[in-house]
Amino acid sequence: MYQYISFCFADKVFKSLDIDEIANTLVSGGTKEEFRKIYQEKIESWKVKDVKFCITGGSRTGKSSFINAITGCQKGQKGFATVSVYGDTTNKAACYTHPKHSKFQLWDLPRFGTVQHKSEGYVNDMEFTKFDYVLIFFDVISENDIWLAKQLKRLMKSFCFVRSKLDQDITNEMQHDCNTIACNIRTKALGDLEKEQISGVDVFVISSADTTIGNFESLINHMENNLDEGKYAAVIYSLASISKPVIGEKFKVLHKRISMIAVVSMLFKDDREITTHSRSDIILTNLKNEIMFYINTFELTPPVVQKLMEHSTFQMRDILCRSGEEIKKIVKNSLESKNEKIFSFPQMPSLFRESEILLNTILVGLQNDALYVFGQLPTFKGKVVEQENISISNV
Ligand SMILES: Nc1nc2c(ncn2[C@@H]2O[C@H](COP(=O)(O)OP(=O)(O)O)[C@@H](O)[C@H]2O)c(=O)[nH]1
Ligand SMILES: [Mg+2]
């Protein structure tokens, strides 16, 4: 098996991959342990790493609403951040654990520069050092915001400014060119920061009520550039599928795994002890688990899909709303249709290649389904959204 993998790498079968490191390890006669180490870092690390986001800023700037937008939580559901109607709802730091991934925490911090939370002690009291990423929500950039930005720079924390409620600006200005409005707000805020000698800090103008407008995509790119690969993957797998860019980003992160997963699906502790039948079952189970992981990441779970099917003539992907065993059968038939002896030993190179192609095809199809579902959500608002909270880490 390992000989074969070395052959693949040497032959540049993996050229589309971000796993050159693995190639080098294997081609240069690396060990199984080295391979496992790289696999764990590249593919598994997101499951074990804590990701702590801090959402801070003035009151009623949209912090709680943003948390709900990215967790996908609705009022009444566990994990819903209370949205303030009047005054300051958040007096104490509140920690929301992402419903899809228990290692991803979103901390909703109280407003600072008030009698209750004076600026001086704020950074220590709120333990800013523990956060991976800080979002400062603002309406108009205040002295407090500037002060906090300086403290975060000193601590070398990754952070950005976020101005929410872009949809309101669009309504207020009675025009629909949201890019121009977002650009004007952003330019003004960047100018304010520059005047205060705060450079290299980005500002994103978004709407939690309508995540399709404004700089949501740039905000996600900023997270990508400021988090390590494992933590960023955890964020992307957990995010609610709230916009096309988020779905696209999910696709990108999942796509990066494919070749590695295709290889790992075929690895066994000791090939000699395994019968052909049990080997094919292990491979099919591994591939099925990966496909289910895609389905959960795209939130194409049965309650959502079934609800949409009731209202639509669209044929959802064959693979949706199927049991694990059914998915295994679909995968088996598909692979065997390419080569009926694909699960027998001499066919391993072909099995690897076909698994890679199959995962790729399924992922592309599921992305399209996710985009379709996303496009339909506004129509079914309030009906579809009651999806089950699925913990992706348990898949
Ligand atoms: N239209 C619109 N309203 C928003 C948005 N974000 C927050 N709000 C509203 O602004 C008010 C304050 O929001 P909240 O999230 O509680 O702000 P927080 O005090 O910073 O946590 C609430 O009435 C929200 O419904 C948004 O993106 N668009
Ligand atoms: Mg709040």
What is the gyration radius calculated from CA atoms? 24 Å
CATH homologous superfamily of the largest domain - what is it? P-loop containing nucleotide triphosphate hydrolases
Unreliable spans: 1-20, 380-390
Oligomeric nature of the chains: single chain
The set of bound ligands, ions and cofactors reads: guanosine-5'-diphosphate, magnesium ion
Query: Portion of residues in helices?
Result: 40-55%
Quick one: biggest sheet?
Answer: 6 strands, mixed
Q: What spatial order of strands do you see in the largest sheet?
A: 2-3-1-4-5-6
Q: Which class do the helix and strand fractions yield?
A: alpha/beta
**CATH architecture assignment name of the largest domain:** 3-Layer(aba) Sandwich
Beta fraction: 5-15%
How many E-type strands? 6
Give the CATH class of the largest domain: Alpha Beta
For the terminal residues, how far apart are their CA atoms?
26 Å
Written overview of the protein:
The protein is an alpha/beta fold and 395 residues long. Helix 6 (143-154) links the parallel strand 4 and strand 5. It has helices at 2-10, 20-27, 32-48, 63-71, 119-125, 143-154, 166-172, 178-195, 216-226, 229-238, 244-264, 276-297, 302-311, 324-338, 348-376; strands at residues 51-57, 94-97, 104-108, 133-137, 159-163, 203-205. Helix 11 (244-264) packs antiparallel against helix 12. It has 2 domains: 48-240, 3-Layer(aba) Sandwich (Rossmann fold), CATH 3.40.50; 246-394, no CATH class. It starts with a helix and ends in a 19-residue tail after the last helix. Bound molecules: guanosine-5'-diphosphate and magnesium ion. Guanosine-5'-diphosphate binds at residues 59-65, 83-85, 89-90, 137, 164-165, 167-168, 207-209. Guanosine-5'-diphosphate binds next to helix 4 and helix 7.
